Structure prediction request, 280 residues.
Amino acid sequence: MSELTGAIDDEIEAINSIYGESTLYEYSDGAAFNGHVLTIPSREVVLRLIIPKQYPDVCIDIIAVEGVGSTVPKGYGNHVLITARDVLSKVFIPGQVCLFDLLQELEQRLDQEASAQEEGRLENEDPKARVHHETETPREVDVPNEVSFIPEWTLSTTITEKKSSFLARACAIKSTTEVEAAITHLLTSDKRAGKATHNISAYRIRTVINGNEVVYQDCDDDGEDAAGGRLLKLLQMMDVLNVLVVVSRWYGGVKLGPARFGIINAVARQAVIAGGFAKD
Prediction:
């Protein structure tokens, strides 16, 4: 039985629901180490963590590199360790769980480093070979005369936890105009959705502009703090494109803590798979 509080168990469950079941778990080597191991997504680097009983009032400790993949360059594991410690020092706030924020900020930092290295490698190559990822909403993606766009939604099952209900919908889209039209149509045509406490949304769109492949993505918490970013992260991890996901939550009067993120991502994943958007 874990000695962590229920809130921390919920945070771990939410992280594993987004990144994979073995991303963060308790581990003992039978000798000196008895704690948790955290796999950094897409990096083949595993870190050892100590999560104190007083967490989140007391910060976790990233103590060492547990292991790296066979293709990881020499020294990169230690670089990730040092970077993770620096990120943790910036995201930790006493009294607030921080593991997801640690992962998200660490990924962004490492991605920025990788992008800078890639830009240097490609500076003399054909720019058409580059794929750009943006969170802005440019005019070029919008397609006129789409105000009558009616989405075809795929629905998840409804999950109810402590009187709060969660339902996800996914639909195909090809422009930001369709995203706006789809959400507007949902909230005006479905009375229950319109009365939801939160309608969390995220989308990813792939298009070609001036010969360059471009991926645009964005999200909206709709008052459910940090839920939109987690939903977008799920779509990124599933590598789905040209899809909009909306998760409706009807609040039941009892706070769920980090467990709500696991439920949001569970119903979202179900809708994405049911709609045929996920790759095999």
